């Protein structure tokens, strides 16, 4: 301590003042020595108050914000958790019953005339609410901005005002009334196993056909004897679709193929929304143009209800970018082929074919309505 006092006296003597000055008047090395050896109980040196006339210190605050007095107890606002705990600890009359004042959408749809209706799927409180979409698909955006209006233009049929509508023929058979049990009975279907096709309606802005879903299905009769084929099929399906496929089983016994009912011999994956448009975009712009000697989708395909399908062989599936990038990862002879089903909101195969051809799917051969 004697050496420190000597250093302080020497510094004061060189400064021309008898008493010790504050720490600010000492050199940097002396400040370092004093800061290291000073006691923690000593009071800090007083800071000089800046003069208001000095332009350098005009924008600085003299008082610190930490010296602001705290808010009184009466001004504090309770948090939601504190209010809940207060209700729980206090009288039960202060708590709101959850089953009475909280909205719960109904589990079942009881018809359009029921007083309680389910909210739309776009409402976050709905049971079938799905957040999204989180990206704007290129093919879907092109459809809504360009193709939708073109479809209405191509299928427009001018009807002069005042023209009477043609009566819709009755396709169901009525009862002859020969028995009292025929009264108030619903109409009968056509004779035989004929399936009634949906009536095709003109395309308006209310019923423009769109893609509803895309389903990929693959059947492998050799999968029960070679389980590795099932593993490869699931890997390929998940790679090109982005969803976990579903394993399908055999429904009937076939002695010629040596398959037994109940065996796992196929995979299936269904895509909706943007995923369906993404898959069609890859097929139209990346896979179809690279298939050798491929004429297109057969024009007679369809189920007469607006749903079309086509097939891809093992070599065609290998053209997908996800498989081509890691082709050595999959055994070439185990890559499966697929049947692709496109479900649309169209009411006929003609409208569905018009929709897919406008998106870029080629058709050939005889076109069937």
Quick gist of this model?
With 369 residues, the chain is an alpha+beta fold. It has a domain of 154 residues: Ribosomal protein L5 (50s Ribosomal Protein L5, Chain: A), CATH 3.30.1440.10. The chain is built from 10 helices and 7 strands.
Could you walk me through the main structural features you see in this protein, from its secondary elements to its overall organization?
- This protein has 369 residues and is an alpha+beta fold.
- 28% of the residues lie in helices and 11% in strands.
- The chain has helices at 2-15, 28-37, 80-89, 98-101, 138-154, 227-241, 274-287, 314-317, 321-325, 349-359, and strands at 211-219, 246-249, 264-272, 297-298, 307-312, 338-344, 363-364.
- Helix 5 crosses helix 10.
- It is extended.
- 14% of the residues are buried.
Task: Break the fold down into its secondary structure elements and pairings.
Elements: H1 2-15, H2 28-37, H3 80-89, H4 98-101, H5 138-154, E1 211-219, H6 227-241, E2 246-249, E3 264-272, H7 274-287, E4 297-298, E5 307-312, H8 314-317, H9 321-325, E6 338-344, H10 349-359, E7 363-364
Parallel strand pairs: 4-7
Antiparallel strand pairs: 1-3, 1-6, 2-3, 5-6
Helix pairs in contact: 5-10
